[in-house]
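Exercise 7.
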Amino acid sequence: MFYDQAKIYVKGGDGGAGAVAFRREKYVPEGGPAGGDGGRGGNVIFVADEGLRTLADFRYKRHYKADRGEHGQGKNMHGKGAEDLVVRIPAGTLIKDQDTGEVLADLTEHGQTVVVAKGGRGGRGNARFMSNTNKAPTLAENGEPGQERYLTLELKLLADVGLVGFPNVGKSTLISRVSAAKPKIADYHFTTLVPNLGVVELEDGNSFVMADIPGLIEGAHSGAGLGHEYLRHTERTRLILHVLDIAGSEERDPLEDFQIIQEELRQYSPELAERPMFVVANKMDIPGAEENLKRLRDELGSETEIFPVSAATGEGLKPLVYRIAQVLPEIPAPEIFIRRDEQHKVTHVEPVERFAISKEDGVFVVSGKEIEKHVKMTLFESDEGVYRFQAILKTMGVDDALRAEGIKEGDKVKIAEMEFEWEN
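Solution. The predicted structure, written as C-alpha cells, is:
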C-alpha cells in the first residue's frame, strides 16, 4: 500500500542520573566525592533513503523513542552515552512539527540526515559540586529529559517528469509503454489511486524517472476529490507532461480539459504553473482526434510543444521520449518550495517568558519548560538538592512572582508533577 502522509511521536532519550559517592579506599582518610556523571541520552535521527518509496511503516509504528544514558557510578565513573536511534525515511519527505507547523527539514537527497529529537544531557555527579566551602557535597542531578514532539511526515515523490491530466486520458497506459512500470489499467475513472513511478531507459544509456500522478478533477487545488493528496507529487518534477484525450472519447472537450487542469495547477501553486510543460495529445488512433489536434495547435500556438501519440498502439512515443531526454539536462532542478498555507521557520529576537503562574482549585501552578526541567533534574532525596532547587526558584524570580499573586503560608504550589507547601 502506498502512503504519503503520517503522524508520529518522537522522543530523545533522557540523560542518565549523576551519582552521589565518596572514595572509600584503604589508607585514604576522608576521601572526597567521587560520583560520576550520567551519560547522554540518544538522539532520534531521520536519514533519507532513496530505496524507500512509501511511508507505510509509519502507519504501523507511530512512536520512536531513543534510549536513555547510563547512570553515573562511584570512583568517578561516568555513565555511557546511549546510541542514537536512526530512522530511515523516503527521500523527498517533508518533516514538520505538528503543533507549531514549523518545517524542520526537507530531505531530498539520499543520505541526508536531521536530528528531530535531541537526547538530554547526563546529570552531574556530586564530584562536580565540590567547592572550597563544601568539601563533601551530597548533591547530584538527574538526567535532562530528552526532547519530545509530534511530527507530520509528508512524502513528495522525486521524479524528473510528472504526468497530469483528467482521469482515463491514458496516463497509466503511457507510462507502462515507455517504462518497466506495471500500473493497474482499466477503462473507468480513477483506476490509478496511487502515484506510479517508472524509469525510462534509452538505448544510449540515458534514463529518467517518470511519475504517473492519479487523475485530477476540477477543484483539485482546494482538495476536491483527491486533489491535495496528489498535487504535492508534481512539486518536485522538472518537466510536466499534460496528457489529453485528444479524441474526446469521453464526450469531453480536450481544449477545455487543458484549461481546467492548468488552472488547477496555478491555483495550487503559481510556481508549479510556470514549470516547463509538454502537451501529449493521446488517443490519436480514435476518430475525431485529428480535428481536435488542429484546434489545440491553433489555440496554443507554436510556443507549446505538442506530441500526438497513441499510448495504446505505441505510435509517437519514441519522439516524445527522446525529446524529454534531450531537454531534461537543460532544465534546472526546481527550487523546493512550500505551499502558501505552510510556513517556514522564522526566528524572532524576542524575550521569552521563563515561567507562568495560574491557579487551579486553590493550588498555585507554575509552568514553563525551564522550570519543569529543573524539577525533573533535581534529586529531592538530598537536602542539598532541595536547597539548590529553592535557590533556583529565587534566582528565576518565582518566589517574588508567587508573593505578587497573593500566596500565603501553607498554600500548595505545583510544578510539573511535584507539589510543595509554601513557607515564608
